[in-house]
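step: validate -> pass
step: tokenize input -> pass
step: predict -> running
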Amino acid sequence: EMPVYVCTASWSVFAYFWMLLILVVISPNVVEVWEGVLTFLFFPVLTFMAFAADKGWIVQKKGANRISVHADISPEELAEAEERVRAEHGKDLTPEQVARVLAVMNPV
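step: predict -> pass
step: emit ->
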């Protein structure tokens, strides 16, 4: 997944800059306690951001909300299939739920 890759790659590059900053600029050749604590606190932030990127919370995945049934199905056939799904699974299904059932029943 590209968003997760971009997230972890960015954090990887940041880690090198952070290490350079704390070992050369802030406190040369010494890692102070606050720097170590802050460095360890970056890990849960990275973990959450990678999780959020995987879930699509940061950048919406292309086609994440699109469900493909069959491109060559006619509107009449689609209406008949929708009626069959609603008859079998309930009349109160949302269009998205019907599309999901159709996608499972007829994989592309």
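step: describe -> The longest helix spans residues 2-26.
step: cleanup -> pass
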